Amino acid sequence: MKKKLTLLTLLMLIIFSCNTDENTSQRITPENNLKTYSDFTGYGLAHNLAMDHIATMPNFNNASLQDIFYFADTYSDSYFNNPSCNCDDWQTQQTHMTMIEGMLDDMNNASNTLVNMGFIDPEDIPLTDMLLTILDNAVSPENSTYKSVAEFTAEIEAFENFVINNYTVIHDLTTKTGNYAANILGACSIAKNSYSYWINATLDSSHPWNYRLIHMSYYNRGTNRIGPIQKGFFGDLWRGIKRGGADVFGFLVGGKCGGIVDGRDLGCAIKHAGKKSSGVR
Questions:
Q1: Per-residue model confidence (pLDDT) at position 200
Q2: Do residues 152 and 244 lie in contact, with contact meaning Cβ atoms separated by under 8 Å?
Q3: For 70-79, 125-134, 142-151, which range has the lowest pLDDT when averaged over its residues?
């Protein structure tokens, strides 16, 4: 399940590919990008607030995924309040969740799946793979190890710095549209906040998501199907971090949110990330 490439190896590969790329328009000074970077902080914070809101729904611990899917639409803030977002219907949500869960189980081929489904372009694979490698290496139920929140955050922030230093980030704060580099930074914001959120939800029995995470989060249309590797403390962590991965994939997949060249609606995508996170089975 774990990717064999280390973070450093991927950095070297991507730096090499960037340095040999004839399209120099993708390289700008980091000072310009740093002005844009702070725009993405709210994406991850808003995602966590949406998860808190979903947990306030009536009979939350035993609510169906379909009920949670629709209740998620009742949350709004400056990031989630997107009346123009053409959200997936319930049937499409189920289709996407099946695809996302398959990618979470096979991270090595996840980028190819995203390309084949038309969610990213082939040239976006290196950045996508680098982010997915960080996620995939965060926990190992087989070895009973996982990254602390500080360790995971440091790895994501190192990746963010790489993006800022090597890619043009196009992001309109007002319309919340952006290119793929902006899309990746938005996904990083969600990854950092989501990882912390689901680790806390796993470890804190008083957390509003704890019961669903421990007892209800890995089932197939209502039927428990927890296998031996998913049982116990590290299995619980694995399922929690799997939700974090679903948050990121939900943002990248993002429903009918426009193209990813320079006009994707990231405000729409974050709403989909929340709905995908709450729909992990």
A1: 92
A2: no
A3: 70-79
Count of residues for the chain? 281
Q: Minimal CA–CA distance to 18: which of 154, 167, 198?
A: 167
How far apart CA 137 and CA 130 sit, in angstroms, is 11
Tokens of 98: 């099946």
pLDDT at 85: 59
DSSP string, 62-76: G--HHHHHHHGGG--
What is 142-192 written as a DSSP string?
Answer: TTTEE--HHHHHHHHHHHHHHHHHHS---EETTTTEE-HHHHHHHHHHHHH
Q: How far apart are CA 259 and CA 180, in angstroms?
A: 9
- Quote the number of domains for the chain: 1
Q: How many percent of the chain have pLDDT more than 90?
A: 20
What are the tokens at 178?
């952006």
Mean pLDDT of the chain: 76
Domain of residue 140 covers: 32-277
Beta strand residue intervals within the chain, DSSP E: 139-140, 145-146, 171-172, 177-178, 219-220, 223-224, 264-265
User: Which amino acid is it at 18?
Assistant: C
Residue 95 lies in a domain: yes
Tell me the sheet residues that pair with 140.
145
Query: Considering the domain boundaries, does residue 156 fall inside one?
Result: yes
Strands (E), 37-111: none
Whether 54 and 60 have beta carbons less than 8 Å apart is answered as yes
Instruction: Decide if 17 is inside a domain.
Output: no
**Structure-token pair, residue 92:** 């499409």
The answer to whether residue 24 is domain-embedded is no
Place of tokens 């450093």: 8
Q: What are phi and psi of 140, to 5 degrees?
A: -130, 95
